[in-house]
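hey so i finally got around to running the thing on that chain from the lab meeting. sorry it took forever, my laptop kept dying and i had to restart like 3 times. anyway pasting the input first so we r on the same page abt which one it is
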Amino acid sequence: MSNKDHAAVDAANEKLEQEQQGYTHQNRRYVGTKETVAYVVYDMSQSFNINNYSTRFVTSILQVSLDLQTLASAINGVWDIVNDIFIGAIVDKTRTRWGKFKPYLMILAIPGTILSVIYWLLPLLFPNAGPSSVAKFAVYLALAIIREGVGTFQGIAQTGIQATITPHPVDRTRLITAANFFSGFLGEKLPEQIFTVLQDLINNKILKIDMRGLYMSFGCFTVVIAGIGAFWFFYVCKERVMQSIEKPSIMQGIKSILNNKPVLLITLSEMLNGFTVSGSENDYLIDVLNFASLKFFVGIPGAIVHPFSYMMVPWLRRHFSSRLLYIIATYIGSILKIPVFLVGCIGGKKNGLYKRWLPMGIALCLWETIFMFFYGVRKVIPSEMYNECMDYCEWKNGYRSEAMTSVAKGLAKKLTALASSLISTQIKKFIGYDLTAYVRGTAQSDETKFGLFAMFTIVPVVTSSLGIIPILFYDLNGEKRDRMYAELLARRAAVSKEVGSGDADAVARAAEAQMQVGK
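ok and heres what got predicted. didnt touch it at all, straight out
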């Protein structure tokens, strides 16, 4: 071959490489309008609930003692860790004509909804049982264990379907951004907001409605509506990222985690962040300010800012590293609470501003508004970084292990979260929280009120800061990320061509080639 021919070949290869690397930034679409709408509805269903009040429900409505709650959390936490490993292995080995994840989503959708309805109806089953009732605790614990098992299957499958619904990173970012934007714009939090206002009207004797009945009716209503919306998405969605023909073994699944640096760094960051000890905003607003609806009013300016935060995501994605955006997304909320705490401390424990709704309303309004500038980044970037880690696994190993990776990532986080949850519950007991005060209409002590305020504001800042360190070493950016997607594009096209040919030998060669990538 002449020098001229060599030059032509080199030029052609260079042009192909440039085209492939430019693929990462092309605006390609694989997910159609119907499926996009279904995804938006699904995203709304994930927030169409009153789950932010679930802790208060168990503590003040169902009235399970804090010691028994701690015991239930410990038992359920151990079960959660055990079942994750087995369920993750089962899901990763699944291959059906409907996909790897969709069967679990479809089969468990209705049972999961029924179990959640039973959860919200527990006060009806035990109307006169005290906080230490053994029968009530036994049913509560059994239901928690069953829901945890079903929830693990659903959680792994939901994470997997989001990583495989489209093979293109830009299309995936568009889908996640659109879902979060429209679900927020269309009022995904409306049930919670209405519920909050009704609580205030009942607490201030304006409405004569039983608080237990309010919790049970709202809980069941939101569960059923959210279940219907999620089921529709599960029915119409498709998995478009091809799984390896050969099913990865458990050891290959473990290997795919250990040699996946991006996943390890995110997992370590989330594990350290999981040590965060925090209190409930609802506890502070209700038990200290006696104004649960304040959350709605202070959020009005932020609601105006909220849509614009999603418009900033594509620009931020192009100009800043995933590492920086992840740190901002994860920690900006906690950092902004420092000035809120300082304002509340003015006047001391007994007469501090933290007890007065007007100055704290202004402080919380400023916090919420600034926080909402970064809300789009918070909702999109962590999800997209996890999806990129799954693509990195395929690039490095020749197969995907969404389930086992999700399990490993979740286990590390759950272990630390379990510890922080147990600590938070015991701190609540230490500061003298009265379980019956909410239903009886009496106030907590000054010491308890200040403790609730500190747990909501400054304690999370101090206990979460170590999580920043691992993510500083995340390097799946720029040229490395572009090269990964360019090579994945070519590899997937070759495998698809072999499989589509119908030649058994070609299929075998494709399977062997996939499994040899990481060796």
